[in-house]
Amino acid sequence: TLASPDVQKQLATILTGEGVFFGIEAKSKSDHSHNGHHQNASSITGIPIVTFKWHHVEMPYTVALWILVAGLGKLVIEANHHVTNVIPESALLICFGFILGGIIWGADKVQTFSLTPTVFFFYLLPQIILDAGYFMPNKLFFSNLGGILIHAIIGTCWNAATVGLSLWGCHVGGAMGDIDIGLLQYLLYGSLLSAVDPVAVIAVFEQVHVNEVLFIMVFGESLLNDGVTVVLFNVFDAFVSLGGAEIDAAEIIKGIISFFVVAFGGALVGVVFGLLLSLLTRCTKNIQIIEPGFVFVLGYLSYLTAEMLSLSAILSITFCGVCCQKYINANMDEKSVTTVRYAMKVFANGSETMIFVFLGISAIDKTIWVWNTGFILLTLLFVFVYRCIGVFFLTWIQNKFRLVPLDFTDRLIMSYGGLRGAVAYGLAVLLDENKIKERPLMIGTTLIVVYFTVILQGITMKPLVTWLKVKRATSSDLMLIGKVQNKVFDHLLVAIEDISGQKGHNYMRDKWNNFESKWLSWILMKPSARKKHDHVFDVFHQLNLRDALDYVAEGECKGSLEFIRNETAYIDFRKKFGDDFSDISIQDTFRRDTVPSISLEMHEQTMNGLRESEDMNTHHLLQQHLYKGRKQHRHRYSRSHFDVNQDENEVQEIFQRTMRNRLESFKSGKMGVTPPKTITKHSKKDTQQKVKKEMRWNRPTLYSDLPYFEFSEESSASGYTGSIPRVSYTAGVGIENPAFMPDLDPMAPVQIPPWLAEGETDSATVAPSQRAQAGLPWTPSNLRRLAPLRISTRSSDSFVLADTLPSSSRERDELPPPPSPPPSPPHS
Amino acid sequence: MGSNKSTLQHIPNAEELMEETGFSAAHIQRLYDRFQLLDRDQMGGLRNEDFEAIPELVTNPIKDRIIGAFLSPGKDMVDFPSFVRVLAHFQPTNSKRSKTSSQEQYNSPTRKLQFVFQLYDQDRDGKISKTEMLQVLQEMLRMEETDEQLQSVMEKAFQEADLDQDDAISFDEFKKSLEKLDISEKMSIGFLC
């Protein structure tokens, strides 16, 4: 929209007339040059110790101040959640902008600051759209793509045409009094008002949490309709310049062709940049610190490139984000991914705040308030009514083809959710004053439409949704069976489609997945990521790992791990998590994915080295097969909250499982030759003790061998600082866990780590260490909820002894006499 | 509906099938053509071999269960009415034809759920036992998994779903555990005409 020469002239007038960047007054510029002189002159008279060089820093200072003010405004607004529950944040920010604008106007009597198109389109909008694209729930998006496109293309054209024509009709009918707007100008005006705005949609829908299909329809439409809006605006703008006489069929056809070029071209540019970005992250193994930078820079470049080629910039950056998400998440280092995710949210949030504040400030401008009741009211009416009609009609057509038709309330919310926002305002400001006499009126009316949709519709959206009982987003705490079931469904539906001979939706999805995993992943993902990608690890899982390790560390330091006693008891971590672990557990707002999923594997990364083939990583397979489907259910799009859908059951489940796995490794690691499927009960306990002892004292050497066992000297749970390093784990070093090697011949000698081999002299009889006996392995009371493992009844281990003596638990300095060495254990 | 009754005359019981399952005449015709195509030896029924001959189906991990779902107990051949009845489960729930009461329709959510339940409950005793669940888990994994891990998953699943603690999941418990899933939405295929 900014490429045509008239627009450039327009920009020039804006820039010089209103000053650089934020429309700083012209007088300041003359001051600036004057001051420069002055400074040169002043250096002659004497050396100044300190000078006040305002104009030296004026521009960056103003920018920074504005960002600060916007942030402070948000701080004030978010202070009270009761208010923000009723009135959406965006509305409050606009009001805040009103107040600020009023203050400035009071001080200067002229509008010194406003939202200029350059700033908006180049510096504020791209990050919001990049954020939208990067976090887009791809599966949901593409499965509803047909519907989204229908609304984006046909719906937007319908809006533009009907609003423009109706307004013109009313003008001819005399409802608007005496204003100088022709048919073409009405159409131009209609086209700039036609676009549903992504920023506004996110801002309003974020608090409402409607069901995902509804959300993606409106949101997807708001993103994709930029292609249409750009074309319509440019075409009509050109028509207005040419004048009515010049328009013939050729021009109209050119207009239609330009639509395809702009839309598909924009998307193509985005895809290209997305692939480029994925390739780039594939090569950045050595300089991981730069990775986040690449993401933002390439995203921004895709936007600018499309803008340069007069294609749709929003489409470009959207598709860049959509295409690259999977690959960059897989390729980049854990920390980079977190950085990117969080930084995107910060930028997007910041931009959104500034946009709304400036939308408010822009209202305080005397020049734009040309009041024409008819024009304004009719515009409002037509925008709203035609949106409703358009949506209902299009969804009625769609419902004939949809498997799951959209019901009435959904359709109502879709039409009500057609919010206009800053994009419309930006386009209005871009109108050429010379060609369009009534520009102030148009700007003013556009602002009123924006305020109406964002404030009024924003406030009433939530009550409306509640009143209509619209289906909300499932806070899906699916049970385990549900997750299994999803996978069953996936397979089942594909099978039924195959049997009945249809190439349906599922078939396509299957085909695409095959193609993608065979070719695209091969090119775009790092080999190491490719192997692991099937076994996707969320930060949630890693956090659980961390928690498990901390838990083990803490438990051990306190002297016991009671849960190894009884294998079958049900672990109830719920309370534990709530009470004690709130500081270390799922509190961070940094999440890899908004979707927690179950992962069973703790040792994945270290185990990679143990066997080349992936048969070993059986846990992943369980994860891959059972839980892959679940991710798709859980997308919760939110601008400001980056939460994990916290599910206590799941947390519990993961913990239980990870703890069990960990303990199995403890159990069998010592022996080394334990047959995989039958882990002896005797060796469990010995291994436990021996390993624990060795773990504790041989920490330095262990660290290099077993990167997972990052113990801290103080057993503080919060002492865990490092992330799980990805260490290539050479076979034979460290504890080999036969539990994870199901194919291993049970009788084959497995290399036993040297420090454990010492105890092999007499068939794995191990005397409990002094420390272990001294501090009888006692759990603090809160650990009792863990499921202990079953121990052989013949064991005379101190654990068992401990069981019988609950009262003397806490005395650590009192050394009970070491128990006699246990009798020789039964052979496994 | 515009059904062309004359073309359906060679399909036995077409009218009743249409009534029963809610498929349109065009659907029935198409399914019949497909049935004929699959039935390579023209025995009037589909056997295991016929199903196995479908290329894409071979790679499906739960194909045996699905094939088993088509076969009525005691028979080893799927005749056309059974074929259609099974496929009727996959129609979208809100298809317009509702001549019979909604409970009896094949594509009601309850019927769909019963179909799925049968996939698990191979011995048809009305309950999913632990072994049956374990088998499903094993099938859906491409490669080996230690029994212990599967066991623990299965145990956990049972703990969650088995409300009366009888070591088996009844149909009602199954239904309850899946109440968050939108079965009718998930288990629908668009049948092309």
UniProtKB/TrEMBL annotation, chain A:
Region (Disordered): 667-692, 760-779, 797-828
Membrane-spanning parts: 59-77, 89-107, 119-136, 148-168, 188-206, 213-236, 256-277, 342-364, 370-396, 408-428, 440-459
GO molecular function, one term: potassium:proton antiporter activity
Span of domain Cation/H+ exchanger transmembrane: 81-467
InterPro entries in UniProt: Cation/H_exchanger_CPA1, Cation/H_exchanger_TM, Na/H_exchanger_3/5, NaH_exchanger
Catalytic activity field: Na(+)(in) + H(+)(out) = Na(+)(out) + H(+)(in)
UniProt keyword list: Antiport, Cell membrane, Endosome, Ion transport, Membrane, Phosphoprotein, Signal, Sodium, Sodium transport, Transmembrane, Transmembrane helix, Transport
Keyword Transport: yes
Ranges annotated as biased composition (Polar residues): 762-772
Main subcellular location of this protein, as a coarse class: membrane
Bilayer topology: Multi-pass membrane protein
Stretches of the chain forming a coiled coil according to its record: none
Organism superkingdom: Eukaryota
Any single GO CC term annotated in Swiss-Prot or TrEMBL for this entry: early endosome membrane
An annotated GO BP: regulation of intracellular pH
Location within or outside the cell: Apical cell membrane; Early endosome membrane; Recycling endosome membrane
Feature: compositional bias, Pro residues: 816-828
Keyword flag Ion transport: yes
Pfam families in the record: Na_H_Exchanger
Family of the protein in this entry: Belongs to the monovalent cation:proton antiporter 1 (CPA1) transporter (TC 2.A.36) family.
Stated role: Plasma membrane Na(+)/H(+) antiporter. Exchanges intracellular H(+) ions for extracellular Na(+) in 1:1 stoichiometry, playing a key role in salt and fluid absorption and pH homeostasis. Major apical Na(+)/H(+) exchanger in kidney and intestine playing an important role in renal and intestine Na(+) absorption and blood pressure regulation.
Protein name (record): Sodium/hydrogen exchanger
